[in-house]
Inverse folding.
């Protein structure tokens, strides 16, 4: 693992906490996080591009009720990490989207597991209220570590897979990925049109 991969994974793990667990300053939105990740590797425009594309792709999925949307932070950070290793954005983007979806499934599983501890923690806090902040701090630390481990593993696995397959990919495959990548913002905009039409009625 490279230093850039580790540092970006750490930064993304902090931003992931901003989504629901703490802060909620909206810095974790892909459109903001993307340029920040790009700034870290010295290519802001790559970060802006990925941030806008991920934002448009996931903007219609709201975290309402029991729905945990794909992680915009993971989906934005992974392509930038791979790009810093020399992998084209059009490959990294789709791996990032896949990682964002898998992360949400992983997060759902962990939330269900943590839910079982609520009764135990409530009883513990009832006996010793001063434990509240320690428990909150520990929960945030565990969430941070979960994201860091997941993103580090996904980055390493994604990089190894792409480097392994690249020599065997024909120019037509590259062109297909480039074409699909360029179509992403139009797909994202198309999902917004019905939303805007409903609001104007």
């Amino acid at each position: 693992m490279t230093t850039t991969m580790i540092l970006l994974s750490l930064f993304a793990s902090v931003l992931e906490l901003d989504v629901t667990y703490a802060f909620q300053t909206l810095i974790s939105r892909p459109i903001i996080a993307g340029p920040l990740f790009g700034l870290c590797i010295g290519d802001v425009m790559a970060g802006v591009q990925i941030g806008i594309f991920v934002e448009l792709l996931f903007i219609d999925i709201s975290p309402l009720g029991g729905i945990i949307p794909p992680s915009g932070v993971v989906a934005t950070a992974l392509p930038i990490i791979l790009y810093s290793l020399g992998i084209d954005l059009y490959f990294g983007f789709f791996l990032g989207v896949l990682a964002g979806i898998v992360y949400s499934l992983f997060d759902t599983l962990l939330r269900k597991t943590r839910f079982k501890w609520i009764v135990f923690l409530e009883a513990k806090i009832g006996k010793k209220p001063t434990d509240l902040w320690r428990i909150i701090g520990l929960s945030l630390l565990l969430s941070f570590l979960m994201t860091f481990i997941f993103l580090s593993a996904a980055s390493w696995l994604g990089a190894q897979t792409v480097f392994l397959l690249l020599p065997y990919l024909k120019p037509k495959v590259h062109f297909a990925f480039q074409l699909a990548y360029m179509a992403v913002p139009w797909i994202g905009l198309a999902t917004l049109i019905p939303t805007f039409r409903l609001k104007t009625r």
Q: What stands out?
A: The chain has eight helices and no strands. The longest helix spans residues 131-165. The chain has a mean pLDDT of 84.
